[in-house]
Amino acid sequence: MSALLLSTKPETMEVWRRELAALDPGLDIRLFPDTGPVEDITAAVTWNHPPEDFFRYPNLRLLISMGAGVDHLFRPPGPPPGVAVVRLVDRLLTTAMSEYVLLAVLRHHRQDAGYRALQAQRLWQELPAPDTESTRIGVMGLGTLGADAARKLALLGFRVAGWSRTPKTLDGIETFAGPEALFPFLARTDILVCLLPLTPATEGILCARTLAALPRGAYVINAARGGHVVEEDLLAALESGQISGATLDVFRTEPLPPNHPFWTHPKVIVTPHVASITIPRSVAPQVIENLARLREGRPLLNVVDVSVGY
Ligand code: NDP
Ligand code: OXD
């Protein structure tokens, strides 16, 4: 017996089941918590499932994240030893994230908040003209999402740089790599975009020290994970004017609690973790493909390096 465990928000579980079953009607899909005998489960497609539960399935061999990020699978105790982890890489996910980043960059760059405030006062007034070619954008993370956003920003004419763990070469983009390059990268960045995975090495990376290393008045966009930001440090930097504003899609606590200061902060734009939403129909083929590869012992797609956590 070989069954697939499906576990996500109850409201999307049925959509996932339908899309996977449409591609492989013979697939034995078990919707958590109705797992049947735990010995049957050989793979799981999951989002925010309690990680300790994965240890209950003695024949589990593969964990498939329902998103690009896998930090939810690495929360203690992490994936059971010997279980492979894969994530989603999907054209629609990538396009949507770049749209989010471009929107946030352009809204700030074209002083949208300023013009809305003038409109509210019926004031016909010019603000200083934005200068695209001298605006320096820095993208943290040059993976699937960061590289696409960086390329699209460069096409618009911004001066784009990116920072990654290992060295990268991208046409028209200045690249920085490793911890020693972080501060030089920050020092040349007017608009900072975070598209890093959340790992022990990147947790709290947007903190007082790194925010202070940006030029005064820099703008911050975080569409990666809430755990990248030390929220009190960002609030203090906004208060002091070191950071002129922020667009935040992700938060340490989600949903963002109603009394959280970000909700009403005049310099903060909040969105509810929607920068890029997985569309089950679009990603179902790669899930089915990976299940086939698992069965046949072929190399899996979009494998996560368990030793670094992304
Ligand atoms: P990838 O794994 O493709 O890319 C990760 C990038 O981050 C790589 O360039 C990697 O460097 C770099 N990186 C990792 N660790 C470090 C480090 N310690 N120092 C410097 N650079 C580092 O991920 P994706 O681009 O697909 O996704 C990025 C993240 O976006 C996801 O993990 C997820 O958290 C978030 N996300 C958010 C969504 C939302 O709706 N808000 C939707 C989808 C994803 P290297 O190239 O050297 O490996
Ligand atoms: C993801 C997300 O990681 O939606 O895909 O956050």
Count of helical stretches = 8
CATH topology of the largest domain: Rossmann fold
Q: Give the total of beta strands.
A: 12
Task: Give the low-confidence spans.
Answer: none
The description of the largest β-sheet is: 7 strands, parallel
Distance separating the two termini:
30 Å
Structural class call reads: alpha/beta
How many domains make up the coordinates? 2
Mean pLDDT: 98
What is the CA-based Rg, rounded? Answer: 21 Å
H/E element sequence: EHEEEEHHEHEEHEHEHEEH
Q: Assign the CATH superfamily of the largest domain.
A: NAD(P)-binding Rossmann-like Domain
Can you give a write-up of this model?
The protein is an alpha/beta fold and about 300 residues long. It folds into two domains: about 5-90 and about 280-295, Rossmann fold; about 90-270, NAD(P)-binding Rossmann-like Domain (Rossmann fold). Helices cover about 30% and strands about 15% of the residues. The protein is built from eight helices and twelve strands. A seven-stranded parallel sheet has the order 8-7-6-9-10-11-12. A five-stranded parallel sheet has the order 2-1-3-4-5. The two termini are about 30 Å apart. The relative contact order is 0.14. Bound molecules: NADPH dihydro-nicotinamide-adenine-dinucleotide phosphate (NDP) and oxalic acid (OXD). NADPH dihydro-nicotinamide-adenine-dinucleotide phosphate (NDP) binds near residues 67 and 202.
Explain the layout of strands and helices.
Layout: E1 3-7, H1 10-23, E2 29-31, E3 41-46, E4 62-65, E5 84-86, H2 91-109, H3 112-120, E6 136-140, H4 144-155, E7 159-164, E8 174-177, H5 182-187, E9 191-194, H6 208-213, E10 218-222, H7 231-240, E11 243-248, E12 268-270, H8 280-296
Helix pairs in contact: 1-8, 2-4
